[in-house]
Amino acid sequence: MFRLQRRTAGSLRAFLRGYATSPSPHALVFLEHRQGVIDTASLSALTAAQQLGGEVTGLVVGGPDHVPAVVEKAKKLKGVSSLLHSTSAQYSEPSAETLSLLLEKLLSPDSSPFTHVVSAHTASAKSLLPRVAARLDLPAVSDITSLEHDSSSNSTTFTRPIYAGNAIATVKAPSSIRIKFFTVRSTAFSAASFAETDAEDKAVDPITVDNPLTEHVQTLLTKSDRPELGAASRVVSGGRALKNAETFQSTLYPLADALGAAVGASRAAVDAGYADNSLQVGQTGKVVAPELYMAFGISGAIQHLAGMKDSKLIVAVNKDPDAPIFQVADVGLVADLFDVVPELVKKLKE
């Protein structure tokens, strides 16, 4: 039977001080979860944290219905030295306003051993980490794709894409920065695996916010039997050339089902109402890096390429031989997608 261990503020400080004497990096990784399942993107953030070469502490927060199960899974993550968890009804659908006070408590200068705070580059973390960093008067680096920690100078160097991925910025956080905050592009790091041993876990008292300024109203999730777009190993995407929503579905969905692939869309297709915005791939949508990315009727605008050009194998079909998508494609076919896709489905079913 799972039992949460409750710790007083004094015992928590003692737990944290146990790591404070070590000069090596100590990362606090924010592990996001939904319906009792740890997000794949958070597992990639954990891999990034391990590359710092020091201790790694996971942080799990949420409501009482899911935290116990998530903690049991998180304790078995390879590379996690210890685990902190906090449970509250206010954390069931947490906001940056409610969670920031908890993180400020864990990162207080008098007791915190943490040198880095890490999370995946998700919608919630993009709101939470910069808020906490600003309240602590510390900088934050977002959407990193690689990192290197120099233990001799206690500095960390990151790379991150800028200008829609057309340039890479190198950012160095020197030792003068007490805690280095950064979010991780999940497609740049492999997901952490699970181990047989359990990490030590400690419960942290939640901090209740009276009369919070924001309130969670509802969560609307698009349900699909296909793989989740951000984590799929195969993606079939369509653009504005698919004419309308009905044609988009009748053309691409059979191919996606035959391949066991997720469905994506260009911004033009989403803006035209062909597909839900949860399927948008690109700078203002989701960044994907599957083993196979198939683009049908997508010209290859810069903002779309920024979301998929790290894919292992890119296949493009377009009637325009000068379409920019062919510049990044590994396999390109100048043809009508309405001829190519049915033929592909037929061959796959055979």
TrEMBL record:
Key words of the record: Electron transport, FAD, Flavoprotein, Mitochondrion, Transit peptide, Transport
Keyword Electron transport on entry: yes
InterPro entries: DHS-like_NAD/FAD-binding_dom (IPR029035), ETF_a/b_N (IPR014730), ETF_a/FixB (IPR001308), ETF_alpha_N (IPR033947), ETF_asu_C (IPR014731), ETF_asu_C_CS (IPR018206), Rossmann-like_a/b/a_fold (IPR014729)
Localization: Mitochondrion matrix
GO biological process: fatty acid beta-oxidation using acyl-CoA dehydrogenase
Domain Electron transfer flavoprotein alpha/beta-subunit N-terminal span(s) in chain numbering: 27-219
Cofactor binding, per record: Binds 1 FAD per dimer.
Cross-referenced Pfam families: ETF, ETF_alpha
Major place of residence: mitochondrion
Annotated GO MF terms: electron transfer activity; flavin adenine dinucleotide binding
Cofactor: FAD
CDD domains registered for this protein in UniProt: ETF_alpha
Binding locations of FAD: 240, 266-267, 280-284, 297-304, 318
PROSITE patterns per record: ETF_ALPHA (PS00696)
Record keyword Iron-sulfur present: no
GO cellular component term, pick one: mitochondrial matrix
Complex formation: Heterodimer of an alpha and a beta subunit.
Family of the protein in this entry: Belongs to the ETF alpha-subunit/FixB family.
Function: The electron transfer flavoprotein serves as a specific electron acceptor for several dehydrogenases, including five acyl-CoA dehydrogenases, glutaryl-CoA and sarcosine dehydrogenase. It transfers the electrons to the main mitochondrial respiratory chain via ETF-ubiquinone oxidoreductase (ETF dehydrogenase).
Name of the protein described by the UniProt record: Probable electron transfer flavoprotein subunit alpha
